[in-house]
Amino acid sequence: MSQKVEKPVLSGQRIKTRKRDEKEKYDPNGFRDALVQGLERAGGDLEAAYKFLDGAGSKLDYRRYGEVIFDVLIAGGLLLPGGSVSMDGESPKTNTCIFSASEDMETMRNFEQVFVKLMRRYKYLEKMFEEEMKKVLVYLKGFEPQQRIKLARMTALWIGNGCVPPSVLLVLVNEHLLKDNLALEFVLEVFATVKQERGVTSLVTALKKGQLEGRLLEFLPLNRRSEEVLASSFASRGLAELLRLHRAQASQEARRELTAALLDELAEDKPVRDLIQELRDMAQKHAIPDHEIVAIIWQCVMSRGEWNKKEELLAEQAAKHLRHYTPLLAAFAHSAKAEIALLTKVQEYCYENMSFMRAFSKLVLMLYKTNVLSEEVILKWYREPNSTKGKVMFLDQMKKFVEWLQSAEEESESGEDED
């Protein structure tokens, strides 16, 4: 039987961990105390407050406690969930903060400079500040009405100077902030301040950058979410330009939706009469005019074609493909404006798709013979085309047909005179 061999025991001194290698205990209260004491020594002088913050970065751990810096500068102390300030510790609160400041724009701009310079000096604070704002805005309900106004004005300045992206406002789309109009009142103050401070162009640019222009309704309480309430709320703060932007965006979305729906229905080979009714319903719902509908129909119908590479066969093939959909085009091309829009679309399509350049007049003739385009509109287009694309070539193609239309018109007029 073999003897059990004992494992050797390691002996020697225990190596002590050096102080600097030990992970320091997370102590936001201690960091806050140091920050508050330094800010209090500045005695409300923001220039002195910034000098303290600038120098303190070499002694205090800004990388670890960046969130605490912003809590203190905004609310005066450590923010607790819900928006109240923690009063634990030696120095829990300072009055050198946005919430204790005057709400006039000069004071707000002075505070803006403290944030801008601090983040310029310590670049890593920029990302922390964006996260901080997402947290602070969720606590909005816990702040006093005047504090909310100050925060909204500061948010406008921060959006204007690029410290935070406009999309940060989307955290307000939260049920507990929507139902009491808190989200709506806050964004209205933000938008009105951006307009006042930087002008309407900057405001529109900010909304587009944050992709907010199509989401303004989301800031309204669910039980009041309508275009009428949005219009009156924004108009009351002199923000009519945003309403126009919102409507344009909503209209664009509706057109995309209608285009996608029509492409699906064309792929399913739905009967044309059903397509007409469904398009009418969607057009009415979204207030899309016929001259835009007819352009969408052309675009969708032509995207379904698989075209012959031989140019001489292409015109006949395209005319045959289109002929099936002429009742659909005719249903929406019953005004001169809609007919011109369609004819311009045909012109631009034939110009942009080189193989169709010689097919233009044949397609127009087919649309005339199927009562989609009237002779009055064709003659008007010939005299003054809306688009310059391929204009010389297409006018030349149409010359004989137009001469025939004109002579037929003259004969008709002379026949009426004899009667």
TrEMBL record:
Ranges where the record places region Disordered: 1-29
GO biological process: regulation of translation
Family classification: Belongs to the BZW family.
Gene3D superfamilies in the cross-refs: 1.25.40.180
Protein's recorded name: Protein krasavietz
PANTHER family according to UniProt: BASIC LEUCINE ZIPPER AND W2 DOMAIN-CONTAINING PROTEIN (PTHR14208), PROTEIN KRASAVIETZ (PTHR14208:SF2)
InterPro entries assigned: ARM-type_fold (IPR016024), eIF5-mimic_regulator (IPR051245), HEAT_5MP1_2 (IPR057397), W2_5MP1/2 (IPR043510), W2_domain (IPR003307)
Domain W2, first and last residues per copy: 249-415
Pfam families to which the protein is assigned, alphabetical: HEAT_5MP1_2 (PF25504), W2 (PF02020)
Cellular component per GO, a single term: cytoplasm
